[in-house]
Amino acid sequence: MWVLFGAGIxxxxxxxxxxxxxNHQHLVTVGAIALSLVAGTYVMRQxxxxxxxxxxxxxxxLFLFNLAVAVAAPFLMHGGQGIGTAAxxxxxxxxxxxxxxxxxxxxxxxRARVSARRL
Length: 119
Known about the structure:
Oligomer: single chain
Distance between the termini: 51 Å
Number of helices: 6
Mean pLDDT: 79
């Protein structure tokens, strides 16, 4: 699955160098994106990667990095591309932030129980 995921990413990014003709480039790009999404979905369901992505350091990185990109994108890209990038990265950052809050509320009662046992 990793090979298919990598091929989809390479195909979507490097289509301009691999295929000539704009209509064919668009078709190959869309197909490669679809391939990477499907393969990425199966890769993400593997347990080691799934549990690693839920750790607090990874969630903080996703939150802060995507928030920084969302803030900087309208200034670094022009027009709709900057707005679209900012919106997409903002949604990812919001999802990571909500994941941090969700994990915080889940771990807070456990800490209270531990401190109550010490008394």
